[in-house]
Design brief:
It is a single chain. The protein has twelve helices and 14 strands. It has helices at residues 9-15, 36-41, 47-57, 64-67, 81-90, 103-114, 184-190, 195-200, 206-214, 218-222, 234-244, 257-268, and strands spanning 74-79, 117-119, 133-135, 141-145, 151-153, 160-169, 172-177, 227-232, 271-272, 284-287, 294-300, 303-307, 313-323, 326-331.
Length: 338
Amino acid sequence: MKTKLKYFGVLFSLLFVITACDNDDDATDMSSSQNIVEIAQDTPELSNLVSALLLADSETDSNLVETLSEDGPFTVFAPTNQAFVDLLNQLDGFNSLSDFDTDEGKAMLTTILQYHVVAGAAVNSSALSDNQEITTAQGEMITVSLTDGVYIADATTEEAMVTQANIEASNGVIHIIDKILLPQEIIDMLNSQTLVDLVVGTDDLSILEAALIKADLVDTLNSEGPFTVFAPTNDAFANLLNALGDDYNSLDDFDTEEEIALLKNILLYHVITTEVYAADLSETSVETAYVGNSINIVTSGDTFVIQDATGETANILSADILGSNGVAHVIDRVLLPN
């Protein structure tokens, strides 16, 4: 039998006041003749969500599209297309939704999508309360925050903002959010790899992998941590070698004890011995694992860059790549200490 979303009607009748669209000033004027799936299909900003639902349903144990077309009622927190792009940028080995086209990937996608659904209630934003905990169809809870807007907290440290609320459907209500919600089940699945495993599994970090092996830092970054690693791309290492001149054409040219020690210190300069997520960044100086040497977090427009001891800065290309012992951020330049 295909999996159906669980119904929590009795529970949610105690938790929520079900309000009608006509009585809610925030409600969006959508035809109540359309169900949740049909509205998503007609909303360009939700095309990735529709694709994700269809891909998940190509696994025989999932039937999300049919379920969300039934009577309900349901509440769906619907991530935007950009929210899917942001998630893919954080996941090692996933560059597009088509990369979920394996049995494991589809099961992961199904779990994520179920975490965005509340079954048994059509919950308007006016019925939400601050710090309210809501059980999802996946089984884990999300938490509501009403400070300066409507936000939904998942198992990560970053909340999703409701950017458009109360889109009424014939079988429930949709709230559009700017982030994919991740349950602890998915976090645990993603965190089965250490930071070194993540580096090894990323083609564009192959020179960093070789450098870690040469500098004998693999065991260190496989240990418990937690660590934050700023991971330079292959192009970043190539640019460094070019800047060093003709004597350094590859990592093989770091072949004396002094040069290997130098390489090790450079790599330790990319490590912080605590977890720092993109949301935690602010203008400050941060001590690195190369004792006595700090990097600076500097504002650049509406984002942050990493400044080394030379005064040069590195851009963060991909943030918050989660490992079992920390987090990695891919950067476009090798940072240099004193």
